[in-house]
Specification:
The chain has 261 residues and is of the alpha+beta class. The chain has 3 domains: 94 residues; 85 residues, Alpha-Beta Plaits (2-Layer Sandwich); 54 residues. Helix content is 52%, strand content 14%. It is built from 6 helices and 8 strands. The strands form 2 sheets. The chain has a 4-stranded antiparallel sheet with strand order 2-3-1-4. It has a 4-stranded antiparallel sheet with strand order 5-6-7-8, with helices on one face. Strand 7 and strand 8 form a beta hairpin. The chain is rod-shaped. It starts with 8 loop residues before the first helix and ends with a helix. About 9% of the residues have low confidence.
Length: 261
Amino acid sequence: MVGKNKPSSSVTTEKQNMEEDTVITKDYIDSMFDKVLNRLDEINMNMSIQQTKVAILEKKVEVLQESVCELNHENEVLHRLIKKKNLVISGLDETDQESESDLSIVVTDFLVNDLKCNINCIDKCMRIGKKQLNRARPIKVMFTTHRERDEVWAKKSNAEPPIYINEDLPASIRKDQNVLRKKKREALANNQTVTVNWKERSIVIDGKKFKAKNGEILTSENVPNPLLFQFSGSSSQNNFLGNKSAEERMTKKRKVAKTYQ
């Protein structure tokens, strides 16, 4: 009876080498897998830190915006107090060699003869804005007393176009009113119903309300969000970054190890 052939020493050696390579490969994969998971844990931790920093920055932005709004309001109040005795007249002709005394005579003549106001003396008047070709600049009129200013303001409707009398308002309010006037003209040209609230700086067109802010028209749909961006702490993001429990990590390691067995 012929005996079975025994494996040669070379086959045995090759098998041993393969087993050793498999062990080494598994150890390497385990090591790399741990490094990847550790790296994902670090990323998760960094993300958490960044989220905290962003939340702090968002709060600071919110506080700063509130402060800016308060300062703007205080600034407007101060401007109104300073300019309380002033009015702005637009539409009066402007000459090339116009002096301050000439301008004072023109303004006084208009107030006394056209508006029928009892004006004894104007403190000061001046053209405002850059000089433009074929366009008269508005005139800022500073009255001596509040009584005289209020009398002119009460009779402003007696002025005939293109002459108009307006309050001497802060630049921020003037910008908002300008865009409101433009919006009103556009709406009227389209035969739309328009209501303007100058004090609130808002306009209602066909039932839809718009507000003017910083020289722009805003609606409730397009008011910009002051926060730059916002992170979401959803579980899906955490899973994507490898925020897994020890049991889940071990299960995944076993699955990877089985592919090499």
